Protein: Fe2OG dioxygenase domain-containing protein
Organism: Linum tenue
Amino acid sequence: MAAASTQPQQNECSAAYDRLAELKAFDETKAGVKGLVDAGVTQIPRIFHVDRASPVSPDDPNFSFPIIDLEGADRDPAKRKQIVEKIRDASANWGFFQVVNHGIPETVLEEMKAGVHRFYEQDVELKKQFYTRDNKRKIVHNSNFDLFSGAFTNWRDTTLYRMAPDPPAPQELPACCREILKEYSEGVLKLGELLFQLLSEALGLRSSHLKELNCTKGLQVLCHYYPACPQPELTLGACKHEDNDFITVLLQDHIGGLQVLHRNQWVDVPPLPAALVVNLGDLLQASFSNSNYAIFLVSCDFVCSELE
């Protein structure tokens, strides 16, 4: 499926190329990008080719991605005030920040990443039972939710779990990551309540304001998987996008790859052990910040927890 080496041949291939047919053929395998890798592909299908004409700027040493220590936020008024100020500044200037000492044990974070690996590395027939294009289901596993509508196809498989307010029954969750999904979700919901309190205060509102608007009730856990790509120069794991939620709590692996667009430069978000990345989504910035917190990101994460 790679383009031919001469210009006439390329034009001929372009004229004959049927993107929709290739998308359908890929989707019908129900094996995702991981299936391509397992099949031993050496040239990626054309549906994954992305125009990378715009270069990614190297990390500028003058940009220091915000890291906020939440230790004491729930019991020390003086520390809480300092934390709120840091969140206000990071939200207004970045739309992103990393949090440490957030209350979720590092063992839980590591086991969550391991559970994601176990799911994607199990036999394809076990994964196919969760494969669907019905986005209303409580568990949705596929490659690219917008496969047939997006401008590009990302080199990524994703599984979505709707963990609140009406989660799947325990027996409906994959056995390989069932317990850690429940434990991780409980931790993220608790952290989410604290973050919404702090964000409310950072906006000059009562600490309960966002909770009273039901911002803390919904939780979707998205588990992304980026298999090794034989031609990484031709594609991306995630194209430039914004998150259409209130906040995203993102757990990176040690490899990294997450970048945010800050002052017209792409800035790396360095992986930090036991840290979580917080992204203010469209709903929060549109409703409560008068668009001051808008930002784009390119994500190479494993676990993306969206609180809505």
Remarks:
- The first helix runs from residue 7 to 16.
- The chain is about 35% helix and 15% strand.
- Residues 52 and 167 are 39 Å apart (CA to CA).
- The two ends are 40 Å apart (CA to CA).
